[in-house]
Write a structure and sequence with these properties.
alpha+beta, three-stranded antiparallel β-sheet, 5 helices, 20% strand, elongated
Length: 179
């Protein structure tokens, strides 16, 4: 198992990741990172931070470095979520409140445990375009209700929408859970 740091040589964007593959020919697995590499080329510096057979050691180092580098919030990193160093642990690092909100959102706004809403933001300008409390409101605004949720979870970087006339909106949007 390998914990690595990749840096795009042209743009300087970094990605903290974990793999069981050999790094030769492997260019990372994060969705935003892969889009960045597809756009800017595969000129990537790859640095092994830790190689170990101990999953516990990899987990500890991955979580520690995710915090030290602030990989999710830093503009220097393409990570959409913390690196856990685990093969399947999508909710590690998420608070119980976030997991509850995610589950409630998937069930719809009539679920009494859903206490939040999504703020949709125009990605290029940073202008909020609206706050939505459920699937029906999102769909009425032309959004596929699962895409904003995936962005708020950190599984996607952005999404689009369909305009009332049926055409695709060329703008990209991001979403976050409102307090």
């Amino acid at each position: 198992m390998i914990l690595y740091l990749m840096t795009h040589r042209k743009t300087g964007l970094k990605y903290l990741g974990f793999t069981v593959q050999d790094l030769d020919g492997y260019n990372g697995s994060g969705s935003y990172w892969k889009l960045h590499v597809a756009k800017h080329g595969k000129d990537i510096e790859k640095k092994v931070l830790l190689e170990s057979d101990s999953e516990e050691e990899i987990n500890h180092a991955a979580l520690y470095l995710s915090e030290v580098y602030n990989v999710v919030d830093s503009d220097l990193f393409a990570n959409l979520c913390i690196e856990t160093g685990a093969l399947s642990a999508p909710t590690i690092g998420m608070s119980a409140e976030t997991r509850t909100k995610m589950g409630a959102w998937q069930k719809g706004e009539n679920n009494s445990s859903f206490r939040g809403s999504l703020v949709i933001i125009h990605k290029a300008s940073g202008t909020p375009i609206g706050t939505y409390t459920g699937k029906q409101e999102l769909q009425a605004a032309g959004f596929n209700s699962s895409n904003p949720h995936k962005v708020a979870q950190g599984k996607k970087k952005s999404f689009g929408r369909t305009l009332p006339d049926g055409t695709k909106d060329p703008a990209a949007y991001i979403a976050m859970y409102a307090a």
